[in-house]
């Protein structure tokens, strides 16, 4: 099996990883104004202007059911290549970039295999750390993605 390089970030005290190949960039949130869009699902925080293009930002805290992620000095926007566009997510801090052997990724338990966790690829243990690995294409639900495309 191959190695997988992960961008690791902190959200509400938990560590998550996402395939580095899906990451389009990591931005400091202070450099951007996030504009709210009326009628968007709560998970969509708003939009930013990045290099002349509108990019939507979503709040993973809302997505994961652990409350709205508050912006702080350390907060970052991880910009992801999602489907045919770029969307960003608010995280508390980007903490690391690690390389893991795909054989070391433990799959999500069957009892967690439902619609609300379909975006979790698995969990990897590195020393005393447990990192939940996300699938970037599945973080946004079809409804959320369609809301972004339609502007509703």
Which tags fit this structure?
single chain, 10 strands, 3 helices, 152 residues, five-stranded mixed sheet
Mean pLDDT: 86
Main beta-sheet annotation: 5 strands, mixed
Succession of helices and strands: EEEEEHEEEEEHH
Mind telling me the C-alpha Rg? Answer: 15 Å
Count of strand segments:
10
Distance between the termini: 42 Å
SS field, number of helical segments: 3
Task: Note poorly predicted spans.
Answer: none
The SS-based structural class is: mainly beta
- Any idea what the shape is? globular
Percentage beta strand: over 45%
- The proportion of residues forming helix, as a percent range, comes to 10-25%
Strand line-up across the major sheet: 8-1-2-10-9
Structure in words:
By secondary structure, this protein is mainly beta. The chain is built from three helices and ten strands. It has helices spanning 60-63, 136-139, 142-150; strands at 3-11, 14-19, 23-28, 44-50, 53-59, 76-82, 85-91, 93-101, 120-126, 129-134. The strands form two sheets. The chain has a five-stranded mixed beta sheet with strand order 8-1-2-10-9. Strands 3-6-7-5-4 form a five-stranded mixed beta sheet. A hairpin with a 2-residue loop joins strand 4 and strand 5 (53-59). The longest helix has 9 residues, at 142-150. The chain is globular.
Describe the structure concisely for a colleague.
With 152 residues, this protein is mainly beta. Helix content is 11%, strand content 47%. The chain starts with a strand and ends with a helix.
SSE layout:
Elements lengths: L2 E9 L2 E6 L3 E6 L15 E7 L2 E7 H4 L12 E7 L2 E7 L1 E9 L18 E7 L2 E6 L1 H4 L2 H9 L2
Parallel strand pairs: 2-10, 5-7
Antiparallel strand pairs: 1-2, 1-8, 3-6, 4-5, 6-7, 9-10
């Amino acid at each position: 099996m191959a190695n997988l390089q992960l961008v690791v970030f902190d959200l509400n005290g938990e560590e998550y990883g996402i395939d580095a190949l899906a990451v389009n960039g990591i931005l400091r949130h202070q450099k951007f104004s996030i504009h709210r869009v009326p009628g968007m699902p709560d998970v969509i925080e708003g939009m930013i202007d990045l290099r002349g293009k509108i990019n939507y930002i979503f709040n993973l805290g809302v997505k994961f059911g652990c409350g709205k992620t508050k912006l702080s000095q350390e907060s970052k926007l991880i910009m992801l290549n999602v489907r045919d566009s770029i969307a960003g997510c608010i995280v508390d801090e980007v903490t690391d970039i690690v390389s893991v052997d795909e054989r070391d990724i433990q799959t999500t338990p069957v009892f967690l295999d439902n619609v609300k966790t379909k975006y979790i690829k698995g969990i990897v243990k590195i020393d005393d750390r447990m990192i939940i690995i996300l699938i970037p294409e599945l973080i946004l639900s079809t409804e959320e993605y369609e809301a972004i495309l339609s502007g509703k």
